[in-house]
Every structure is written in structure tokens, then in C-alpha cells.
Design a protein that fits this description.
2 copies of one chain form a homodimer. The first copy, chain A, folds into 2 domains: 7-129 and 323-336, Rossmann fold (3-Layer(aba) Sandwich), CATH 3.40.50; 134-318, Dihydrodipicolinate Reductase, domain 2. Chain A is built from 8 helices and 13 strands. In chain A, the strands form 2 sheets. In chain A, strands 3-4-2-1-5-6-7 form a 7-stranded mixed sheet, with helices on both faces. A 6-stranded mixed sheet of chain A has the order 9-8-10-13-12-11. In chain A, α3 packs parallel to α5. The first copy, chain A, has helices at residues 17-28, 77-90, 132-148, 166-180, 212-225, 259-268, 286-289, 320-336, and strands at residues 7-12, 33-40, 48-51, 54-60, 71-74, 94-97, 126-128, 150-158, 231-235, 245-253, 272-274, 295-303, 309-316. The interface between A and B is large, with 55 and 55 residues.
Chain lengths: 340, 340
Amino acid sequence: MTAEKQLTVAIAGATGVVGGTVRAILEERDFPVGELRLLASERSRGRQLAFRGRDVTVDVLSADSFAGVDLAFFAAGGGGAKEFVPAAVAAGATVIDKSSTFRSDPDVPLVVPEVNPQALDRHKGIIATPNCSTIQMVVALKPIYDAAGITRVVVATYQSVSGSGRRGVDDLERQSREVVAGRPPTLGLYPYPIAFNLLPHIDSFLPTGYTKEEQKMVDETHKIFADARIGISPTCVRVPVYEAHSEAINVQTREKLTAAAARALLAAFPGIEVVDDPADLRYPMPLDAARRDAVFVGRIREDDTIENGLNFWCVCDNLRKGAALNAVQIAEELVRRGKL
Amino acid sequence: MTAEKQLTVAIAGATGVVGGTVRAILEERDFPVGELRLLASERSRGRQLAFRGRDVTVDVLSADSFAGVDLAFFAAGGGGAKEFVPAAVAAGATVIDKSSTFRSDPDVPLVVPEVNPQALDRHKGIIATPNCSTIQMVVALKPIYDAAGITRVVVATYQSVSGSGRRGVDDLERQSREVVAGRPPTLGLYPYPIAFNLLPHIDSFLPTGYTKEEQKMVDETHKIFADARIGISPTCVRVPVYEAHSEAINVQTREKLTAAAARALLAAFPGIEVVDDPADLRYPMPLDAARRDAVFVGRIREDDTIENGLNFWCVCDNLRKGAALNAVQIAEELVRRGKL
């Protein structure tokens, strides 16, 4: 992407997994960064991180960090967002926030550029990027929704540990080593071992019995499609995989879509790569999706237990399209729309 | 269990993972075994395996193995079943077969004792035990079916490598060691690495796009409930877990069941253990279910996207209740009914 204007860009939470991925993607996609400010907590002060072949020194994230900043990516958790996003907006920056803090705010667009780019036009300084498990699902649902309408989705997720940040990755790495060496796994971030195990528990539990992660899939999908009539019934599960979330998705459409028609619609949609040739044992898997940009869809088949039923399997790198890439694509869309 | 009559019992496929588990469970449950014959292929001839503190020598499985045998457990795969079950029946043995060979035969009862024990009364020498992924699901569905009727089930599975036998376990063990040591995983049984990955592919693909494993969940559930009107929409996925399969199950019932009512019904049902206290972070996990007998159910919650919707999470040791234990329980039920 090229643009006349070179922007002053900040990354708040620059030393985290998502912040680091934002930095890498800005470079990969040649985003028009004039100056880059890397911001993190006190303990990362002075660290040097590479950008376009030069070292950039990490500064401490504070309310004073944003003078002259055009665009601020926030990957600083809910706490960092609450504390510093208002200051960034007050300083004139446009903020793209990865946390859940502002996602349900009616004044904050919640955007996946392939799905609802028009929502960007009414932003007031803050744009939220959805949860990883939502992003890949709404990208896969969008062409189906547009062609045939969607009444209901039942989704079971298989979410990787990188969705929990570095401590989740550390748990799986350390515990795998321990188990392979015949030792009992030691606990870290998760309340139970994740190596060679499954945790049907992501984020905290609500009084309904659903987790916040599950409720996010419902609320965020409704907001992104601007359609609260879509029924979303989710079960979110953490699995011993490092990168890329997978989802088994069952959809009921308003109009009949054959598997072949769905496959063609999905294949033609930007951001989706269809990998669906069972005869040749081709289907999406997390090991193949990791470090790649697409939402991979396969195992597309009709579900004849209901009228207009479809099943498919969807895999996507939760750090890239599920987080950092989506944020950078929002910024690109803002540039394209003359909003930056 | 005690009975007057001591039975001559054979295990065909005695050196495999399931055959070994049958032997262990016969001992644990004090099944009335007078003589035990352990049968396997030529290369296991002469191996000694312990039963009740004594060594039993493995003999070669042949058409002549069954003279005087009252009860034969078959865990010898589809090939072994096709070749030798007829000879066992001809010799007068009652056969309990774990393979899929006879499951759809109308003359062969397909039995989960908690669900359809009455089907045993019409057996003609062969009884089939269902696929592991089916067994735990039908046990969990049974009390719900009896209380409220079931119109449709959407199920996503998370199946452990022991479901593929020793070679599946070997793949996960070897590949985990390799990855932990920084080496690329080498392939064995599975077409792709299973360590730190997911395979949305169990058994072979059918022209419909579903796998045989998925189709088994449909056909076997219909046969066990003697009700082909139940819609079953499955997605089966292999996960890097050693023992115990997990399933995210979405059910639509005919009559309304609250989550509390479903929890009470499940808790009261034989063979089910409810582990469902989110506030205390209590939910079923494969590490806890491994080597145990129950079907563990948790995350029970209402699904308000449809009338009469329920979601729950179900975990069970696929080698025990999913295979060997179910076979031994069938034998116990035959004894109880005076059929052995």
C-alpha cells in the first residue's frame, strides 16, 4: 500500500505478542509509517525493537505518549486501553484497540474490513477490532449471509494458546517438555494443564453458564452484521496448539445453499482461502494456517438434518487475521477512505 | 459381579490396546471367567499376559480357536471380525464385536447397556458395540431423550489418539518429543502431524463430504435409540490428547428442559458423572476422565437461539466406556438376563 501522507504511528503494548505482530505486519505491508513509537510498560523501557532495518527504542506508555500521533494501535489489554486510549484520542490520534473495552460502545465501530468497512465512517476516534474467535467466523459467514441470509449458527471452537498471549504459549511449551520427560506438568497461566489436555473454559464464566469468550462471539457478531436476529450458540475450548484457532461451524441459512454454491461463494470472497478436497486429503489445519493471512475454510458439506443446513471447518492464525492483521487492515481501510 | 457359572472367555485381538483393556476390566470387575483364551496374530504367539496374577500364553487366532468358548470378545479390527466371528459363532460362542463390521446388520444388536439393554434379547450370536464417539454421546443423550424427546443434535468432537490404537499414540508421543527437541515431526499413521495440530479427518471420506466416523455417529445413534428421526449433524476432529474423547453437544429437545432439570436428570443416570460448577472451575477434561469409567458431563446450559435448546460438554475414556468397558458391560447384562 502506498500513500502520499506518511503517518506517525504508535503501538501501545509493543512488546506483547500482538504488538510485535502489528509491527511486523506494518513493515510487511509497507504501511505509510513516517515515525513509529513503540510504547510499553516501565519494565520494557529502553528495549530496542527492529523496524525496517533500524532499531526503535521502546518508550513508557503514558498519557503524554501521543502528541503528534496520527494513528495508535492498542494491544495493551483492557487495563491499558481504559487508562490510555482517552488520552490518545484527546491528543488527536485515531485509535484501533484490540481489547474488549470499547467493543460494545455504540459510538465505537467494531470492524472487520471484509465484513463491515462502512462502519468506519462514523468513528469518533476509537475503532475496536473484535475478538479472534469472532473475526474468523464472521469473515467465513459473510458471503453466506449476503447470498442466503443466516438464521442460526452453532459453533465449537478449538483455540490455540497464543490467544492467551506469551504466558499461554509458555505453559504449553513448558508442560509439553515436562510430560515428554516423564515429569508432571507444572501450572502457570491456566488453572489446569493444557499439554495433552483440553479446557472448555476461555475467559471467565457468566451467570448464564456461558463464558465471556462465548458471549463475545454472540454480541460481536450481532454488532458487526448489525443484525441481532442471527442466533449464535457457541462453545469455546482451549486446545494444545500454538497458533491458529479452528472452528466447527454449523449454519442454517434463510435460502437454500448447496455445498457447491457455498464453496464457490467462499472461494470468491477476499481474505478466504478454500482448502476442501477430501479425496486428496486437503482440509485446513492449524499447522498450515499459522503465520498466514487467510481465513481457511474446508469440510464444506450440507447438513440435511434441517432445511438449509451447512457444516464447515474454519482455521485462521489468531495473532494475524484474528488480531494484528485485522487492526492493520482497518488502518489501511481508513487511509483508503481518506479518514487518516 | 458374581455368578454360579464360570465362563470360558476368549479375547480375539488380545495384544491390542482395546483387547488389553478388556482383560484388565474383566479382572477389575470380577467377571466370572473360568478359562481365559488370549488370541492374536502369529507374531504375538507365545507372549505371556497377566490375568489374576497368573500368566496366560497368547495363542494364534484361527477358526479353530473357539471350541468350548462361551463368550468371545473381538477387538481384532474389521478384518479379524470378518474372518473369524462366523467361526466363533458356529462353535457356539456368543460374540461381542468392537469393529464396525456387523453394526448395521439388522440381525445384530448394537448395544450400550445404559441405553438399549433390551436389544440383547434378540441376539443371534453376535452383539456389536458402537464406535467410541457414539457411545459417550448416546449415554449423555439418553436421560434427555427419555424426559423430553430429541429432535436434533449438532456435535463437534475432540478425539484422542488412542482411538487410533497404538500407532496413534506412538505418533503423538514421537512427534511431541521431536517438536520439543526442535526437530520437525516425522509422520507415521496420520497423514499430517498430530502433535500441536488438529486433523478434521477421522476414518475415510464418503462422497457426501462426511467421514465414515461422522456417518457412524448418525447411523449408530439411530439404531441404538431405534429412532431414525433424530437429526445428528457431526464434525469429527482428532486432537493431540492421549486418552478420552470430548464432545461439544448442542441438542434440541421436543419439550422444554431447563439447564437445572437436565443437570438433575444427567446426574441421576447410571454411568454419568456430572462435573459442572463453573464458579469453582469444575468441568470435565480429558486428563481427568482418562482411566475412569464414567461419561463426564458439564458446561450444561440453555441455548436460547432455538426453542428447547441445550448445550453441554461430554468427556469419556474412549478405551474404557468407549470400547472395552462397554463390551464387558454387555457381557454382564447378558449374564443378568440369563443369556450366558
